[in-house]
């Protein structure tokens, strides 16, 4: 395979879709209007959504033209009020990443640093996502910086336990893992593959592999033009160069 051939479709990273401001977490919020703009842009450019479970089960490793994967980290409860119904209405799919220690709870990892409290999905919500054709993936157990746990048994537990819990709840295999804070441990390849993951999602990633994939963020300031640029192969190629010099 040519080194610049994409190993997955472009990956959009989202967290919260809400018209509340989000306080100190505002960077991770987009308004309902901005979310509709994203979905309209995808539809106008004739993009189809997929997710990692579908890629794995259909053994797809190419043919990603006009495909995109929408990813939501943290599984905020409010996504069920607007974002998820809007995806379902348009027959779109997405992948949702849950830190399993906080199922049915709140974003304790942010709150302990003084941020706003945000309710997270419970077991029934996660089952409902799967019933709607969405993917539920792991976002570790405790939502910690995994790079700091490189080479430790605790890292292996964070990765394994969350997978087992989600599989028990949803009755579906868990194929994908989103690193909290985009923090990729040094031994990510062995840790993720021995736990049975097929895909790992980071944010900035100079040397992209299936277990450390790069995502682009969707922000309030995005326009249809910036979104189309982020979806393009050329942007992805530029990120390969840019991320190599950016501090992780
Ligand atoms: Zn997160």
From TrEMBL:
CDD domains, from UniProt? CE4_NodB_like_5s_6s (cd10918)
Instruction: Please state the protein's primary subcellular location.
Output: secreted
Q: Where are the transmembrane segments?
A: none
One Pfam family from the record? Polysacc_deac_1
Q: Name one GO molecular function term.
A: hydrolase activity, acting on carbon-nitrogen (but not peptide) bonds
Keyword Signal attributed: yes
Q: Where is the NodB homology domain?
A: 66-248
Q: What is this protein called?
A: Polysaccharide deacetylase family protein
């Amino acid at each position: 395979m040519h080194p610049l051939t994409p190993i997955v479709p472009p990956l959009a990273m989202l967290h919260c879709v809400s018209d509340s401001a989000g306080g100190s977490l505002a960077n991770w919020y987009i308004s309902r209007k901005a979310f509709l703009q994203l979905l309209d842009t995808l539809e106008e450019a004739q993009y189809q959504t997929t997710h990692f479970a579908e890629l794995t089960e259909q053994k797809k490793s190419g043919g990603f033209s006009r495909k995109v994967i929408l990813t939501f980290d943290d599984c905020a409860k409010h996504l069920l009020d607007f974002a998820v119904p809007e995806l379902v209405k348009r027959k779109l799919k997405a992948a949702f990443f849950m830190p399993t220690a906080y199922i049915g709870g709140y974003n304790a990892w942010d709150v302990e640093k003084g941020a706003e409290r945000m309710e997270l999905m419970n077991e029934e919500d996660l089952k409902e996502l799967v019933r709607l054709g969405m993917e539920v993936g792991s976002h570790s157990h405790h939502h910690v910086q995994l790079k700091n746990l490189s080479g430790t048994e605790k890292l292996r537990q964070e990765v394994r336990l969350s997978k087992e819990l989600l599989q028990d709840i949803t009755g579906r295999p868990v194929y994908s893992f989103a690193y909290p804070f985009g923090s990729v441990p040094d031994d990510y390849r062995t840790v993720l593959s021995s736990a049975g993951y097929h895909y790992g999602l980071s944010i900035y990633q100079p040397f992209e592999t299936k277990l450390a994939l790069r995502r682009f963020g969707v922000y309030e300031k995005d326009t249809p033009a910036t979104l189309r640029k982020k979806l393009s192969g050329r942007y992805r190629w530029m990120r390969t160069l840019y991320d190599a010099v950016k501090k992780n």
